[in-house]
Design brief:
Blueprint lengths: L9 H15 L16 H27 L1 H24 L19 H19 L5 H20 L2
Helix pairs in contact: 1-3, 1-5, 2-3, 2-4, 3-5, 4-5
Length: about 160
């Protein structure tokens, strides 16, 4: 029997979530005394854009889970990883706003898994594109975020 969506074992999701968390370990120490971690005004704006992209991804997970409780059960670890990534990204972005508050997003039209996968892919591409403009810990963070999200994209396929 063929089903429309692949099943993820709890073990698979935990391994994926752990891999993303381990990839970020040690990449989020930002020191004003390290010249590699100094940012220009343009980079501050660029980091704010990456925070916004990650916030949109966290919201996409919330909306997809509201539309599909089955997906919520299967991918809860991935959503937690995205929230952790957002916290690290906010810490890396000078002057980044705190957590957004407001109405949860509406459920997306169509297949929630496909919509979520597209959002994950777009956010990974955004972080990867921004990465070369930085050095030091911020470059490492953006690179690891992009790589972790590519892993999530594959798991959501």
């Amino acid at each position: 029997m063929v089903t429309g969506a692949p099943e993820f074992s709890r073990r698979t999701l935990l391994v994926a979530a752990s891999a993303g968390t381990l990839a970020l370990t040690g990449c989020t120490s930002f020191s004003d005394s390290d010249p590699a971690d100094e940012v220009t005004a343009a980079q501050v704006d660029q980091l704010a854009g990456q925070v916004t992209a990650q916030e949109a991804l966290v919201a996409a997970y919330t909306a997809a889970f509201a539309a599909s409780p089955e997906l919520a059960a299967q991918a809860a670890g991935l959503a937690e990883q995205c929230s952790d990534q957002l916290a690290r990204l906010r810490a890396a972005a000078p002057g980044a706003p705190g957590p957004a508050t407001g109405t949860p997003p509406a459920a997306p039209p169509g297949d929630p898994r496909a919509t979520l996968r597209a959002a994950v892919a777009a956010t990974a591409a955004s972080h990867a594109a921004a990465c070369p403009d930085f050095s030091g810990a911020r470059a490492a963070l953006l690179g690891s975020l992009a790589a972790g999200l590519r892993g999530q994209e594959r798991l959501l396929a």
